[in-house]
Amino acid sequence: MALAGDMAKGRLAIIAGSGLLPSHVATAARQAGENPFIVALKDEADRSWEGFDHAVIGVGDFAALNRIFASNGIDRVVMSGAVRRRPEWREVRPTLKTLVKLPSTIRTLLAGGDDTVLRMVITLIEENGRRVVGAHEIAPDLLASVGPLGALQPSADDTKDIIRAAEAADALGRLDVGQGSVSVGGRIVALEGVEGTDSMLERVANLRSAGRISARRRGVLVKLCKPQQDIRADLPSIGISTIENLRQAGLAGVAVEAGRSLILERDAVIKAADEAGIFVCGLDRGLRSWGLA
Amino acid sequence: MALAGDMAKGRLAIIAGSGLLPSHVATAARQAGENPFIVALKDEADRSWEGFDHAVIGVGDFAALNRIFASNGIDRVVMSGAVRRRPEWREVRPTLKTLVKLPSTIRTLLAGGDDTVLRMVITLIEENGRRVVGAHEIAPDLLASVGPLGALQPSADDTKDIIRAAEAADALGRLDVGQGSVSVGGRIVALEGVEGTDSMLERVANLRSAGRISARRRGVLVKLCKPQQDIRADLPSIGISTIENLRQAGLAGVAVEAGRSLILERDAVIKAADEAGIFVCGLDRGLRSWGLA
């Protein structure tokens, strides 16, 4: 995190997908004295980047990415935000180096698990001489810490649900499928696939109102980093919308992995969670305790 | 499956949840010379049982279930169809024997994984002197066999998806979460939770039309029996609606576990699958080959 030393060498680029994270990272980078260049991904980045030097490129357009890096003196790159679409074959514009590796590289980009794809992108960027750094290295305040964040703590029943959901999320992560899982009264009711956390919580709300999940047991959401994932990309994150969706799904709270998850708009999250009677909790990795024992 | 011998002893009861399976089992039972008594579960069973001796009871009403068994000379019980709702606490009417085990029994019924709950129900029935038999013992023609069912076979790409989805479904089953998984181009895009296969396929269709799943790779659904489950309850099953949902989700086909999955309306399923260009395939258990090597 010795940014000052790095700054002498070159400029920071932030590759921006969808969601709030890219803005938070960009703001944090400025506060740390950086002058970030934003590479917004077409059809993914969903905010205006007025006020920042920026360019828009298609997902999979490595040729454009390298041109931008070269012409702006970029030496470090942060990947932030969600990338929901995978590029279609015709959209991948390889550089010479990626061409050498065809077709396995391209096949991975089109159809690998999220984690596989992100590792591949990191490799492609680093092979061209830039260093990929994690969003949490630029904005360390976003990292979740161990223990309750707001006024509420998980109850004994919630703790059982946390352990059960963590077990399921861990298995899910090992399969490179997703990061989130919901347990209600000891029963796993939903696992997160491509749809993402918000859609999964919507599903839980619907199952609840259809009477297919107990109305008397609240339950919890757990989000974990995939065991094998590169933490420089795609750390689990929660924000205001997570709290609102938890409320609508009737859940008691959310537990995220401490040190490997991001909490966006922390103050607003705490306020919303306290008002809704929802706990937000950081879990210590180490399956034996999860910081709960 | 020596039904003739059993028949001398007593009558067969079919506990009927939702879906088509209970009808198929009841018809098959009659064809085998049985005179089944149908116990339709309130708010679950979704067809008329005119033409069969039947009664309707609430899910969790063990007292009523035992009265019905006793007054109709029931000695064997088949559990068939889906039970989507879990009983709420006030709906569980225990018998004396279940009362002895409170509160752990009740807690399991209210909130255990599906498999845990079904084992518990089987134990409760068998403790009262009846034998629980599998739907496939009454209607063995419903069981899936190894290999393609209709005109189409999985391609090489489909086979890779089958292996990937089978791996995920196996992990899902070990967690007692669900039986189904969808892989598209080697990437797991959805796992089945409480929502069931039809809802999961609807989700895949939506993700596909939103461009979040490749439009150029078809993908497959795999349904497996949970490794630890009692095969007398809740075998994975597919029917006409599965084929229609596969088509809408743009999937190439479905693979189910041979010998431990049920195919309802087999002729109609084959016809619909052939017309839609969809394969239906039985997999040999034994993760090494899945009958594909």
From TrEMBL, chains A, B:
Domain LpxI C-terminal intervals: 147-281
**Residue stretches making up the LpxI N-terminal domain:** 11-142
Query: Gene3D superfamilies recorded for this chain?
Result: 3.40.140.80, 3.40.50.20
Annotated coiled-coil positions are: none
InterPro entries listed in its UniProt record: LpxI (IPR053174), LpxI_C (IPR010415), LpxI_C_sf (IPR043167), LpxI_N (IPR041255)
Check the record and name the PANTHER family matching this protein. Answer: BLL4848 PROTEIN, LPXI FAMILY PROTEIN
Q: What is this protein called?
A: UDP-2,3-diacylglucosamine pyrophosphatase LpxI
State the organism of origin. Rhizobium tibeticum
Q: What is the lineage of its organism?
A: Bacteria, Pseudomonadati, Pseudomonadota, Alphaproteobacteria, Hyphomicrobiales
